[in-house]
Prior knowledge:
Layout: E1 7-11, H1 15-28, E2 32-36, H2 39-48, E3 53-57, H3 65-79, E4 84-89, H4 94-102, E5 107-110, H5 114-152, H6 164-181, E6 184-192, H7 195-201, H8 204-221, E7 227-232, E8 235-242, H9 254-261, E9 265-267, E10 270-272, E11 276-284, H10 292-301, H11 303-309, E12 313-316
Parallel strand pairs: 1-2, 1-3, 3-4, 4-5, 11-12
Antiparallel strand pairs: 6-8, 6-11, 7-8, 9-10
Helix pairs in contact: 1-5, 2-3, 8-9
Amino acid sequence: MPNTDISILVVDDTKFSSAMVNRVIARAGYTDVRHSNSAPHALTLLEERPAHILIADWLMPEMDGLELTHRVRQHDEAGNHFTYVMLLTAKEGVEALSVAFEQGVDDFVNKSHMQDQLLPRLLSAERITSLQNRLLAENQNLIEANAKLKKLSPFDALTGLGNRDYATRRLGETIKHVASRGGAACYLLITIGSIETLRKQYPPVIMSQVLLAVGRRLRQLVRPLDVVTRVGPNQFAIITHQPDIEHCSGQSYRRIFEGINLKAFKTTAGFISVKTSMSIAACDDQTLAPGPEAMMELAQAHVHRAIGSGVIVSTRWDGVDISA
Length: 324
């Protein structure tokens, strides 16, 4: 039994062969059948609604079956769809077959044998187009599911570090820890100020190597319980808990600052140096920040000052400068 959900479009400008095709289709039991007497009109119908099987005459005025096939393939590509194209022809020989298949035709039926060959070819076309479109739909579902997973993932795809959402969550946990047990929460924002200059000099693959190397070095420079994240295209952040807010000064993190700025990173294009700034936002149980986003914004607000001065800028949540 045919699949009645299969959509067939018949394109033929001759009444005789069109009538023969219609008899075979009707006998087979297909119900979703549309007709067109020209290739341009057929393309209009496909724009309105795709077809699973296209049966067309090879020789037609305005646009022949091969050009129609080419246009259908473009339409399929744009719509993530597969149309099984079957041409009706009086042509004989291997050369005609080769030309048809090279142009993307899936099958063709000789008009002199259409009465005997069309129905079995239709049943075969039905199986193939159903399988192909099911595979396309499943692949699209996988692509969309993967995109959702990436969007929901707490990790940066390039470096494997936590992303901005992850940094926000971990900073929030650190602030809560400070509120209940004391100490200080520090958010260190490291900005690669030379990123645009480097992008003009090196291709994306080299820039990816630089960013990956920066992330790896930061993990080497911090303490085991500190959290290293990538919060932006050219920004990394370190979240740390200190016993006292005075330990959140610029001097406390100079080793990390110099570890990034004074030692070049090895890439396939050679050793590349980066110029970074560091701005720090800190709070303790006496100057508790209202939330992680506010702490992150405080550090971001001092990025230009850190870049301009060339020193580490550290600010307590109540506005007191503790950079020294």
